[in-house]
Design goal:
about 10% strand; alpha/beta
């Protein structure tokens, strides 16, 4: 009964949200600068979106393709064209001249949307690709969030204090899947005609600098002071987070992702 209640509650929220964005988009003018923040879980997509929302000329919707979120679109009984329409309407329903939304590379795979098709259908969009250099830190952060159910938060209660165990085979399989999704982006030249990439590490180290040097010029907006109420959920080291760290330290240190090492095409601003 609990699962049924949660399903019906989520479905009701999704229907209400769809009605709202449909009615709003029907009377809204297109954004001057439409954009998507694309990344993976635990790469800073929520953080970047929240920072950008503090800019008076920018609005950012949530994970509009996550089938488990009210803002998202379900996996069944939908076509590619319906997914593209949902993206357009979600941005039309936002205020301001610079409107965006966040999503994950995984979500495009879930909806069977190749990135080349996305860019073909949304040629005027700009794309911000977030990635995390340390796949080990990304994986452990993902494990802790999944284990606790805490994916985002603004208070101390959102900070992870528990530990997780790392299974070698699962970790390797996870890294392979993540790299595969980023490789699709790397191998999509159409995407890089109007995109920029940014590492989580650079964003977390100095958010203001990262936005002023990269994101604001890319979106064509004036620089302003940004802020976010979101808390860093896992400030600890890997050794402090992983129960069996001594057994997997060698493996964790090997798995990294640097897009420049994947022959990343130079983004054009």
């Amino acid at each position: 009964m609990t699962n049924l209640y949660q399903y019906l509650r989520r479905s009701a929220k999704r229907i209400i949200h769809r009605i709202r964005i449909y009615s709003t988009s029907c009377v809204s003018c297109p954004a001057e600068v439409p954009f998507l923040i694309i990344g993976e879980a635990r790469t800073g997509t929520n953080f970047l979106a929240d920072l950008l929302r503090s800019h008076p000329d920018i609005s950012v919707a949530g994970e509009i393709l996550n089938p488990y979120n009210p803002e998202g679109i379900r996996l069944h009984f939908r076509r590619k064209t319906a997914v593209i329409k949902h993206i357009k309407r979600s941005l039309l329903a936002q205020p301001g001249k610079c409107r965006g939304a966040q999503t994950h590379l995984l979500h495009f795979r879930m909806h069977s949307i190749p990135l080349s098709y996305l860019v073909e259908q949304l040629p005027d969009f700009r794309y911000i690709l977030l990635y995390r250099r340390s796949l080990a830190e990304q994986y452990v952060s993902w494990k802790l969030a999944k284990q606790t159910g805490k994916w985002v938060g603004t208070t101390q209660t959102a900070v992870h204090t528990t530990k997780c165990r790392v299974d070698r085979e699962e970790f390797i399989e996870w890294c392979t899947a993540v790299k595969s999704r980023y490789m699709e982006a790397v191998n999509c030249p159409e995407l890089w005609r109007n995109s920029v990439s940014l590492s989580y590490e650079a964003l977390a180290a100095n958010p203001q600098l990262a936005l002023e040097e990269s994101i604001f010029p890319f979106l064509g907006v004036r620089p302003v002071r940004v802020n976010s109420r979101l808390r860093k959920q896992n400030p600890r080291t890997l050794a402090e987070c992983v129960e069996n760290f001594a057994d997997v330290a060698d493996l964790l240190n090997q798995q990294n992702l640097e897009l420049s090492n994947l022959v990343m095409p130079k983004a054009k601003n």
